[in-house]
Write a structure and sequence with these properties.
- The chain is an alpha/beta fold.
- The protein is about 35% helix and about 25% strand.
- The strands form 5 sheets. The chain has a 5-stranded mixed beta barrel with strand order 1-2-3-4-5. Strands 16-17-20-19-18 form a 5-stranded antiparallel sheet, sandwiched between helices. A 4-stranded parallel sheet has the order 9-8-7-13, covered by helices on one side.
- Strand 8 (about 220-225), helix 9 (about 240-250) and strand 9 (about 255) form a beta-alpha-beta unit.
- Helix 4 (about 70-90) crosses helix 8.
- Bound molecules: flavin-adenine dinucleotide and nicotinamide-adenine-dinucleotide.
- Flavin-adenine dinucleotide binds next to helix 2, strand 2, helix 3, helix 4 and strand 3.
- Its cofactor is FAD.
Amino acid sequence: MHRLLPSLFRHLAARRRLRRWPKPRRFDRNLVVIGAGAAGLVTAYIAAAVRAKVTLVERGAMGGDCLNSGCVPSKALIRTARLLAQIRNAPHYGIARATAEFDFAAAMARVRAVIREVAPHDSVERYAGLGVEVLQGEARIVSPWAVEVRTAQGTQTLTTRAIVIAAGARPFVPPIPGLAEAGYLTSDNLWDLRELPRRLLVLGGGPIGCELAQCFARFGSRVTLVEMAPRLLMREDADVSDRVAGRFRQEGVDLRLEHKALRCLAEDGEKALVAECRGEEVRLAFDQVLVAVGRVANTQGYGLEELGIPTTPARTVAVDECLQTLYPNIYACGDVAGPFQFTHTAAHQAWYAAVNSLFGGVRKFRVDYSVIPWATFTDPEVARVGLNEQEARERAVPFEVCRYDLRDLDRAIVDGEAHGFVKVLTAPGRDKILGATIVGEHAADLLAEFVLAMKHGIGLNRLLGTIHVYPTLAEANKQVAGAWKRSHAPQGVLRWLARYHAWRRG
Ligand SMILES: Cc1cc2nc3c(=O)[nH]c(=O)nc-3n(C[C@H](O)[C@H](O)[C@H](O)COP(=O)(O)OP(=O)(O)OC[C@H]3O[C@@H](n4cnc5c(N)ncnc54)[C@H](O)[C@@H]3O)c2cc1C
Ligand SMILES: NC(=O)c1ccc[n+]([C@@H]2O[C@H](COP(=O)([O-])OP(=O)(O)OC[C@H]3O[C@@H](n4cnc5c(N)ncnc54)[C@H](O)[C@@H]3O)[C@@H](O)[C@H]2O)c1
């Protein structure tokens, strides 16, 4: 009962807050969704599928960050970079001479072509066909019951039963003196480049910094990666970061870990970043700098301040476990709400935002964050679901670790890609999977089996009992289950069996 009380009080307070605003007698819409990125598109899709009258408002390009400046362009660029790396590695496969004449402008043109090819999936036409009204303009919440939309044709105010905020995030640009004067790239404007930077400084060793630093190094830029933490991809375990850092160094990336950016300067016709490393100042020259030090939610300028909807210390819109804001009919999902910043988590939350905003009066659902996977598409690829070692320790969750090294896997050897590992955390003495990390070729695809297993409570014993095609990379998942089984073999029974067989031999 005591657990229900706070949520009951919250509910009553939210209702009281709503009553302060004049309620229309009739509503134009059941739902207005702000933002047509992954979160907003999926919210609108679900609302239309259950026959609600829904309007989706987008001020920029349909598809948001993922399609236009995030996942799609970055993965298209990675494809080109990977091909170049493979061509360089051709002698390893018995091809004595394979040369490539790389054309950066053409690679960027391909990126734009890929965006155009994917764009119909997120287009106004597709969503109109699904029953969503799409307005291309700037939305502003003027009351919990009304959204004002400014389009090229004029301004209109829509009354609505519910609102879902899916306004996304943007690159965070730190206040580094001289940075604005030096001019900088972010994941928003990088795609406008037509000439390959000769020396590229990448600020930030998170997923964006790592994926793009490796691409540009493979294209032939001299890349310096500056990261203030002691390792890359700090959310992953140290053995994961080490594998990625090792490859980066091999490929010529100048890794500057434990370097904190202090200021940018222009001297002798050259731009440079001054960073601090263990009390010393280091000068790093560059032609272009890419800022990739995190993304910050869009929470200003569209009515949250006026309605008094608060933000969290992480600067996202404050929502409860059902994605509800301070108002019972306003929800938020995707990057604007956090805590994750992925396309698939935005889409996952969107189901809850749509269903809770439309049917919350009857029943509300808490977002299930129990099994969240993600991947960083570097080479080697890094993929994870559930806990890793550092998180398990931080949360004081008891665990055991089993590992399988991909250098032993037949298919990885055949492919000339025998590197990386699969690491699984299990509950002590049991085969219950607490988390899995894969480093290596196609890690993100291989992870799907662990995601399914965790979601449906399938343990390593049942994974071991599942036939995997030979020779595939997916066999690594079975191999790690085998490693777990061997380390948990009942020693007493085995000793007894050895005696039994000896007795049988006479
Ligand atoms: C370089 C890069 C690579 C990435 N790679 C991956 C990846 O491989 N896998 C992955 O899962 N994730 C990846 N991400 C993250 C992923 O792109 C985001 O998590 C995802 O796009 C978030 O979706 P969203 O709908 O919450 O926000 P967004 O896609 O940002 O959509 C929000 C939309 O709201 C609109 N909007 C905002 N305010 C208003 C307003 N007032 N009126 C009207 N419209 C408004 C914006 O114009 C925008 O289109 C990557 C991100 C970057 C930058
Ligand atoms: N493959 C994917 O799924 C994918 C790819 C790209 C981005 N994303 C999403 O986008 C989000 C943002 O990515 P990101 O890489 O920009 O941010 P991030 O927060 O993940 O990493 C930023 C890094 O910059 C470092 N940093 C911050 N300030 C610094 C400074 N002044 N000097 C040096 N280093 C500094 C931080 O220590 C951190 O390691 C990710 O969290 C992820 O959710 C996902």
